[in-house]
Amino acid sequence: MIKKLNIGCGNDIKAGFINLDIIQLPGVDVVCDIDNEALPFEDNFFEYILCCDVLEHVEYIKVLKEIHRILKPGGVVEIRVPHFTSSNNFIDPTHKKMFSFRTFSFFADNTKYNRNYYFDFQFSNVLHSKITFISKNPINWPFMIWVNINDTTRKIYEETFFRNFAPAYNVEVQLKK
């Protein structure tokens, strides 16, 4: 059976996962303050880790290092965080950080930014990266298609007025160890 971890699960309890949160809510298997404690698991333990709407609340470099430690070689971590243009960054007073689709490339080997010397851990690569938009707004529809054609269109979006015209919602990324 695949060992899976759901970090910062809150009320989103997932069957087949170890559900971890800072508070003992119904369905939470492990209580851990990931901003101030090491993840209470052995090295190379999980094949899959889900980390949705968590990293913006913590000092994420330290948490990514812990995720890397407990992820098996070849394992995948799936991350969702607010995009830096998202109004959710400013609504929630517990948000500490904002993200670009390029943020996580700094933690992967063989990326064009080649800045992995800043950290003593690296994921092998970025498997998937996507910018999401609120689909209820018709202005966003063309951007939902165009922005995620490739890294170049995502970069053009982030570096031009397009980001102000149609603010994004989240960044979704998958990193492989």
From TrEMBL:
UniProt-recorded Gene Ontology molecular function terms: S-adenosylmethionine-dependent methyltransferase activity
Keywords associated with the record: Methyltransferase, Transferase
Ranges for domain Methyltransferase type: 24-77
SUPFAM superfamilies for the chain: S-adenosyl-L-methionine-dependent methyltransferases
GO biological process: methylation
Top-rank taxon, per record: Bacteria
Organism of origin: Flavobacterium johnsoniae
A Pfam match: Methyltransf_11
Protein name: Methyltransferase domain-containing protein
InterPro entries reported in the protein's UniProt record: Methyltransf_11 (IPR013216), SAM-dependent_MTases_sf (IPR029063)
